């Protein structure tokens, strides 16, 4: 025997280590495979990894203040937290105000501070306009321009903004802020929106997942057990929504559910409802749940179907012949075998629902909005991208935690998408 | 048939018909009665209705017409889980998400049996099929033969008096299949259970059964003990389906008692036992088993010249294909006696003969 198990592992007949020989023999195939997936890797890098990295960076990094207010940044660095702003601080502020007037960046700086202390953007633009006339003593001069310059909270906010890296967007995304002493406190009751929205998003997504499961399970079972020509027909009906525009599907729910819509008209016509008591089924949570359940249903049915299709009917027959009633046979024999499909479908629907935007935006009204609508608001309207990024990052983190939990409870190997 | 069967019949099919689409009958007027403790095999080609019959007995298919009785009671409307019939499936149908123990324990659990009793019964059933050490494995960790034993144990663990088996050995290799045949047979004998066994393998049917029902096209062609089925087939289908068979087509020319004189296609005549050949003038098919043909003129009046077409060496015997009465598919099995003087060669002309009682005149196919 040439290939004796030597101390260093097996060798080939001509004495080379077996591992090395194997690696060399496969190197060509591996290189080929790598070259083939290279375009895809590049595409994912450019279109997915980089933007997400940018987004995550933006949630903790905002240099709008630190880049444009060098003198004040210097002062904050030299004087520790808690030291009251003295004349040198106001001198630094005055010189920075002159600088941002010259660079025309007062708006950028004001916006950055405004994120954390609303109503301060105009303070910066106004003061910058008057910066040229400022004479020492700067403290009095600036307080004359606006009394707000004496507010310790403002100085606390500027201190936190003076570092490009900040956690304040995450704090804001969790309805928290720093007070004048730098302690983390909850924001005022009427401004607490994000936690409530996160809760609502998770709750509605869970509800939508459950309703899609309840509606999708029988359909998937039917698909899996019907003779092929009928099941093909049914499959077309399941897939039909995929071939229709998302917008069309959502707006058709408006047609159906609005107060002068088809469903209400039918209920009134049949006398179930009084004409004055039409049900509000759209532009609220009901609208979001109904429309999203419909839109996400195929994502539940398809994984369930792919798991149910290969389950041999003889399992249930065997259970029946062994003395189990049809319900027991379903519960003890059929259902456990569909768990991978239920897990995959539920995970898919839940993750999609958590990040869904267009449907709640169209039919959610004010009570049916999800966190993604707020992220979009900060991206498009308030232009507070850092806060949007922080909200999105929290959402991403939540989904990853769920994924991890699923792996622990069910096992990701059991996931079956088709 | 139903009249004479009602006495001690345990399983009974009475004028049972089955159609799936309302146009074609899959089972046509099935009458069958079997006593307690019998091992009955339903044998037939695929699509002959045998599995449908089994499924009707198990309760997974409803009979379109007629009655199915178990222990004297009609069971047409009793759901499968209340019939108390054990069943072994073709693909074993072991529950993949349960261990072997859980699989066996399942029928006992649904019957509300206590834990201790369940455990002892499961253990006994596993020991019965010599699988005692495999209780904690999952079905996927077992070989085909082991899964087969577990399926068998599961069908027996709740002590059913009737066990149905739907081609249970179909997926096993030949050697294991033969071994399992004996094992199932021994279990049947030692437990005294009644077994209905479905297969399309005729040697399996002959080895295991007390009686065999040969199915074709939804009808039982013959219901008899294996030896009767082989040696005394009542029609050409059974003669063809069971074992090897030589057939000679001809027309009945004379009938004396139970002996018919038949004119063959090439003009020669031959005498045969009139079993199912109709009156003088009707077409018939003579069936002769290969091992009943004698090389040389040893037999009585049925001698014929034969030309050797092909010789196949099979160890214990030589399979010899001959041309006899214009039929060049006439097979004779020559025992390998080592006698070189009697050795045949291809192209050689020889004489063969057979006893009149070994030639059976049956219906034309």
Chain-wise SSE layout:
The complex is a heterodimer of chains A (418) and B (365).
Chain A: H1 18-60, H2 64-68, H3 70-78, H4 87-103, H5 106-116, H6 121-129, H7 138-145, H8 152-161, H9 168-173, E1 176-178, E2 184-186, H10 194-225, H11 228-239, H12 246-257, H13 262-269, H14 285-308, H15 313-321, H16 326-354, H17 358-363, H18 371-380, H19 385-409
Antiparallel strand pairs in A: 1-2
Helix pairs in contact in A: 1-19, 3-4, 4-6, 5-6, 10-11, 10-14, 10-16, 12-14, 14-16, 15-16, 16-19, 18-19
Chain B: H1 2-5, E1 9-19, E2 25-35, E3 39-43, H2 50-58, E4 65-70, E5 73-74, E6 85-88, H3 100-109, H4 115-128, H5 144-156, E7 162-166, H6 174-191, E8 194-199, H7 202-208, E9 211-216, E10 219-224, H8 226-231, H9 236-241, E11 246-256, E12 259-264, E13 269-274, E14 283-288, E15 294-295, E16 302-313, E17 317-324, E18 327-335, E19 349-354, E20 360-362
Parallel strand pairs in B: 3-8, 3-9, 6-7, 7-8, 13-20
Antiparallel strand pairs in B: 1-2, 1-4, 4-5, 9-10, 11-12, 11-14, 12-13, 14-20, 15-19, 16-17, 16-19, 17-18
Helix pairs in contact in B: 3-4, 3-5, 4-5
Number of strands of chain B: 20
The oligomeric state is heterodimer
Structural class of chain A: mainly alpha
CATH fold label of the largest domain in chain A: MetI-like fold
- How many structural domains are formed by the residues of chain A? 3
Structure description:
The complex is a heterodimer of chains A (418) and B (365). Chain A is built from 19 helices and 2 strands. Chain A has 3 domains: 1-60, no CATH class; 64-191, no CATH class; 194-414, MetI-like fold. In chain A, strand 1 and strand 2 form a beta hairpin. In chain A, 31% of the residues are buried. Chain A is mostly helical. Chain A starts with 17 loop residues before the first helix and ends in a 9-residue tail after the last helix. Chain A has a two-stranded antiparallel sheet. In chain A, helix 14 (285-308) crosses helix 16 (326-354). With 365 residues, chain B is an alpha+beta fold. Chain B is 24% helix and 36% strand. Chain B is globular, with a radius of gyration of 25 Å. Chain B has helices spanning 2-5, 50-58, 100-109, 115-128, 144-156, 174-191, 202-208, 226-231, 236-241, and strands at 9-19, 25-35, 39-43, 65-70, 73-74, 85-88, 162-166, 194-199, 211-216, 219-224, 246-256, 259-264, 269-274, 283-288, 294-295, 302-313, 317-324, 327-335, 349-354, 360-362. The relative contact order of chain B is 0.11. The longest helix of chain B is centred in the middle third of the chain and has 18 residues, at 174-191. Chain B has 2 domains: 2-236, Rossmann fold, CATH 3.40.50; 244-362, RNA polymerase II/Efflux pump adaptor protein, barrel-sandwich hybrid domain (OB fold (Dihydrolipoamide Acetyltransferase, E2P)). Mean pLDDT of chain B is 89; it is low at 1-6. The chains are: A mainly alpha (418), B alpha+beta (365). Chain A binds chain B through residues 312, 314-315, 317-326, 328-329, 332-333, 336-337, and chain B through 58-60, 79-87, 89-91, 93-97, 106-107, 110-111, 154-155, 158, 164.
